[in-house]
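HUMAN: You are asked to prepare a plain-text protein record giving the amino acid sequence and the backbone structure tokens, both parts labelled.

ASSISTANT:
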Amino acid sequence: MKALYKPVIALLCGLLAITAGVKAQLRIDQAFGLGYTRSSVNIFALATKGTAYMKSDISLRLHTMGLVYMVRKDLLHWKGGSISLGAPVMGGFSWTSRYRSTDTDGTNTYHYQDTLSAASWAFDVPVVADLNIGMHSASDETRSYFGLYVGAGYAYSFTKIRTTVGNLHYDGYEPLLRAGIRWGSAWERRWCLAFSVRGNWNNGANKAYGLQLLKEL
């Protein structure tokens, strides 16, 4: 969590930009629904055990599920599309599976497999810019019944992971890409489905893949 204030300030500035907007006459859109992410994680941890240092090489699968509330605002709007800024914030819980670790205290080596799995609270705070084609939001009451969007941004995520050397904070401020579809003949029946991927592009093992189903309000 080193230098955590920098990403938090950046994300807050993004949220303020959404509410400020570029054109005051354009409404703020909202959506509510469910989200799920999954990633394969590799961690190297160092802890003290009595008078010795315990080194642990850990691999696991991390799952996160929760409620999603999104606010978004069109920055540019034309017939057939828009460019928007949004924040699909998710809060919920995480759990782990496929736990593996090799622990050594300098003298002995211990191997653990599928021995630890505990739930913890978790949250994601992304800020993304989207290009929307076709039906672009719940406020779009044109004849378009279908739309798609692609976008990019940054996300801060946080949870705790239970390991053989204690509970570890697992967080990151990472680039994010997403794409999705939007459908419904009127705003009362308007939904969107989004797929996202975030993480270090040079390290495929720690990428997080997400899916969200949202009812646009």
User: Anything to note?
Assistant: The two ends are 35 Å apart (CA to CA). Strands lie at 28-49, 52-78, 81-104, 109-113, 120-134, 146-163, 166-183, 191-198, 208-216. The CA atoms of residues 11 and 127 lie 7 Å apart.
